[in-house]
Structure formats: C-alpha cells, structure tokens
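Notebook entry, structure prediction.
Reason for the run: the old model in the group folder had no record of what sequence produced it. Starting over properly, with the input documented here first.
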Amino acid sequence: MVEEASLSRIHGTLAPLAIGLASALAILAGGFLSAGANTPPAMAGSQSCAGCHAAEAESWRKSQHAAAMQHAREDTVLGDFGGVDVDYFGIRSRFFREDGKFLVTTDGPDGAMGTFEVKYTFGVDPLQQYLVEFPDGRIQALPFAWDSRPKAKGGQRWFHLYPGEQVRHDDSLHWTKLGQNWNFMCAECHSTGVRKNYEAASDTFHTTFSEISVGCESCHGAASGHIAWAKGGADPRLAGKGFASMAPRRPPPDWTINPATGSPAHGTSRPAGDEVETCARCHGRRGAISENWQPGHPITDTHMPALLSADLFEDDGQMRDEVFNDQSFKQSLMYAKGVVCSDCHDPHSGKLKAEGAEVCGQCHAPERFASTAHTGHAPGPGAPDCISCHMPARTYMGVDARHDHSFRVPRPDLSETFNTPNACTGCHADKPPRWAAEAVERWHGPVRKGFQSWTEAFHKARAAEPAARELLLKLAANPEIPGIARATALSEAQRFPSNATSEATAKALSDADPMVRVVALRALAGAPLPRRWELAAPLLGDPVLAVRTEAALLLADQPLGDLAEADRIRLTAAMAEYEAAQRLNADRPDARANLARFLASRGDPVAAEAELLAGLRLYPGSTTLSVNLADIYRALGREADAEAVLREAIARAPEAGAAHHALGLSLVRQKRYAEALAELRRGTELAPDEPRFAYVYAVALQSTGQSDQVKAVVAEALRRHPYDGALLTLALKDALRQSNVETAADLAGRLSQMQPDDASLSRLADRLKGR
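New structure, fully documented this time:
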C-alpha cells in the first residue's frame, strides 16, 4: 500500500540499499555529508518552505508538478465519471461514481470484467490518467485517459492509450501488467521521496513517498537541515545552507547579442552536476540504479541514461520514442554553450519565461530571426517561428505534443539521403524533401549544417556499412561533440571490430563523460580476463556509480583469491553495488536476467537459475529469460530441462524466433538433427534481422550434407545483411570452391572492409580483383 509517510518513517528509509564500501566513500567525497556527519537530513514537506519562499511556493502550487499525482477527490478528478461507457475492441468499460468513490468496470488481470476503485489521479494537462491500487501494493494505470483539453480542441472525452492495437489481458502492455506499473514506471517522477520497497520473497510492494506530488524536495533534496540553518541551528557538518548537497551554480553567463549574428557571442562553462542533471532525473530516458539521489551529482550516480539508440532516436538524434528531453537537449549547441533549463522555464511554475517563441528573444535578436530573410516566409499569422522550425513536435499518449529540445537547424537535405524527419516537410507534407532542401539553400546557401553532425555515421552504422567505422571513431574522439553522441558513436563502432576500434575503446575509458566510460566498459566484454582487468580495474573506484557497476559486471568472473587485498576490496564493493542495483529492480524480469548473468559469471549457476525462474514467474512470456535459463541448463548438463523450458516458451510465444533457434541448438546437442534443422529454419524465418540465426542454420545444413540448400540460405541472409562477417566467410569459401572468381572478389572485398587488419584477406581480395 502506498503511504504518505511520517517524517520519522521517511527518515528511516533514506539509507541506501547495501551500497558497499566504494559507494559510501564516493558519497562522502562527493559532498552528500561533510566529514563527521552521520545522519542525512529528513524530508520536511513543501509546506515547510512556504514561510520563507512564499512567491516560489505560490508559483509551485499552480504548477503541473504540484498536481503530478493526487488523491482521487471531487476537486482533483477531471474525467467524466457520470456513468459513461467506452468501447475498446468489444470490451465495454464504464466510468461511474458510487458512495463517493470513483469506479471503473473493465477487464481485469485475468480478462474477466471487474469493478475497480480509482485511488489516485495522474497529471492534469493535456490528459489525466487514473490509478488503481491492488492488495499486493501494486498500483496500475488504467488504459483509458481523460482528454482534458477544451472541447473545441477535441478534448473532454475518454480515449484509450493504445487505440490502434488490441491489448489483451495477457499482454505486458495491459493495464494490470508490468508495462503499466506505477511503482516502477512512474512513482519516482510523480511523487517526492519515493522508496519502492519491493519485497521479492512475497512479490509485494510497500511503496512510500514523503509527498504525493512533485514537491520542493524533489529538486532541492531533504530540507530539515536547511530549515535548521534558517533558524540558526544548522549542523555545521552539512553542506551549503543546511542541505546535504546542492546543484552548483554556473558562472554568470554573458548572453550579450552579437549584432553580426543576432546570437550571443559567448557561452559559459558548465559545472558538473548542475541543474540540468537535476532535471534529467525525470526529464530523460533512463533506468534507476539507486534511490540515493541528491542534487549536485551527475545523473549517472543514480541512473543509467539511454543512448541515442535507433529504437528511441532518429539517425540524426531527433526524438522518435518518448524520451523526455534530456538526451535531446544534451545534443544541442545551447547546452554546449552553458544554457540550463531555467533559462527558458521558470523552475517553480514550469511555465516558459515568455510567451512561445518570445522566450528565444532573451538571447537571439527577434528582428533578425523573425524576418523573411531568415524564415523564408512572410511574417504574420501562421508563419513559422523559432519553435516550429527548431523544435518540431511529436505527439505521444494520443494528445500530448512534445517539442524536440535539440534545437537543430532543419535539414531536409538529410531527409532526402537518410530518411530523417525535418521541420519543413513536417508542415509541407505534400512536398518532397528535395523541394524543401532547395528552398533552404536559396535562403541560406549550401553551408548551413548546424551543430549536430552524426547523421551519416549513425545511419551507415545501422546499415552495417564498413564506411561507418572511420566516421564513428572520429566522432567518439572529438571533444567538441556532445558526450551523449560520443557515447553512442563508440557503442555503434563496436559493430566494426578493428585495431583502431580497440584503441579508441581503451582511450575512452578515461573520457570525461561517464556514459562514454560506461560504453567503453561494455565494449570490453569479449576480451580475455587479464586484458579486461588491466583496463577496467581502475574504474572500480570511479566517482560515478553507473561506471563502477559496469566495471563490476565486466570483471565478475575475476577470482577474488587471485587479487591483492586492496583490489579485492574494491572489486567486492563494486560487485555489491551492482547486485544492489539489480535487487532494487527485482520486480522487473530484465533485472532478474541481469542478476542471473552476473551470478553465472561469478560461478554460481544455481543462484542464476533461481533468478531466472523468479523472473519467469513475474513475466512468464519472456523469451529472453527462457533462452537464458535454457543456457544455464546447458552449462549444467541438463539438456532435457533446457528443451522443456524452450518448448514452453514457444507454446507461449510461437512467433519468437530466438526460442526456436535456441531449441534447435539444444536438439543438435542431443543429436536429433532432423528436428534441430526444422527449429533452426523456423528461427531464421521468424527473425530475419538476426544474421547469426541464418549462419547457424546454414552451417547445420552443411554439416548434415545438405549443401545444396546452404547457398540459398546464405544468399537470402546476405541480401539483408550484406556485410555480416560470418555469412560473407561462408559464401566466400563456397565461391572459391567453385572457382567463381567474380563473386569471390566481391565477397572478399566486402569481408576485407569489415576486417581491415587481416592482411591475408586484403591480399586475397586484391589478387581476386586483379584476375
């Protein structure tokens, strides 16, 4: 059950979960508490701030932060609960009131219709969601939301958040399942002082918060020490003004407009852990690895941010999925120049500091940028402005338009080449990108490329083109490129192994940006243990938790008995932090899979098995968990159990290619070759984007004397993956065997591009081309 806890209860929950020695030292060194202090400040509540900060408190009370989550009452519920029926794929849900309660009748966890009480509201504009509490402490978001926009704009109606697809009760997106769970998905960013308190043994939650909405202490940290400071009785061991820590203020910026450009001539330096990192905790795509957040620390000290991956961002870095601004903003020239969130947004009301595009006029000359010479459009109603051109919007959750915060120059020329979106044809949808590109070139000339420069590299990397390697490594090594883009470039570069890639990875371990260091550690996963220890051991003591835990995972197979005492202490502490991060999220199957991987690396397959079985109880439909569990059984020599797990996974998800592929491998090990080939073939058909599946299937065909089928399988896979090294090797061997010189030359050339350090392969390619 969710509790608005008393101060004493919240005070008791502030202790971190088994953080380990290294983390404790890092926290002390980082300024959470000064030397000698042993009790962190307690939460005091937003009401305690109003006495001294009346204006700020009044602005906050009117903000969406103050209404981020509320008890369901007459004055907080916006939706129509007057006996309204809503149909969704044949399921008729009803919203009504009875005995002062807000109720909904809809399909429940087992698919049967039931009546549920709405306990909490979630948000206010442009939509409001509603939360239902279950006896085991889970709080789930209903699938219907209330469109709170005016009726004239299409609002004042119920709508389903997944209108175009039927989400059944056994789907993870169903409102009663993992994907809509408040305790994990929502709580941290809609309430203050949240402690999830998941109890793994009973699979129950006892989640608490100090304040139901986003209050003052969500951003400023626990305030009891500050209140004591204001009264003249502060503990001198605490940091500034009685807070355990504070976000550092940047040096005073000089935003004086340069008349020649219409923009500021100068930027300002950015202190580590500034206010952008405070906002990033909720306004960014990330996963929690600790609940011990405090202002003034990098987001990577408590969370693992997402990279600019293809599922979340376009190739040029524009937002694709719902990513909440942080990674977008950190790509911008504005961020690089020292701009912070509160330069545009009032931090207490959440509103812009000026109306619409007028906010840009704080730093940019409106008369220059609102002109026809700049926009190419005559001023007046309907003309594009700074926001429409440099912050194009996408709509999420049906009605919520979000503006991209990367503040980029519109590039219809890139749209033409790489199929990325652009603001111009976003408005002129009936025109091709070439039309828009020519117009922009007429207005501004050919050299107006903007700040973001990684579109070609990311696009080619995701197409597995070898030409991406050099582009990516140049990006990763360029300190002028934003850290989030450099980290992504280094991650993408791992698709193209080479000596140059390895050198860049080793160098990145000392990069100033924590996410670059995290990616560099991940890239070392396949290296021999002595090499991994040599490169990664120093990062066991990194000041940032995300880096330490990544180093711990990388070195999990290091025997402790082989280490000197100091190294053993560091590794043990970092491994404890990694395990604590996964235990924090033990309500999620992915965390269980991570923990199983860690335990297996530590040489404890029995414990790994237990974690995977627990994960499957949480999410029986997880193919990944089933495949991992089968691999554990393989290692233990329990092949029959591996087969049983995989067959059960296929029964639950017949279209899961990975399960069919894994079952095929199990059957090969059992020498049941005919059955194995059928499963390997099915895995290849269901997962054509997995070139390894096709390679394994081709090798199996070859091994069973069915060479005539191999060529067709490899050719089809190479059509999809023209630079896959394993497939190219198979095809090259076949071409050489058949003396097909022209085909062999093409294949050898492509393979040489993927393996540039193989001199013999390069000579072969040259010789074949020469013939």
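Summary: Residues 1-37 have pLDDT under 50 and may be disordered.
The old model has been moved to the deprecated folder.
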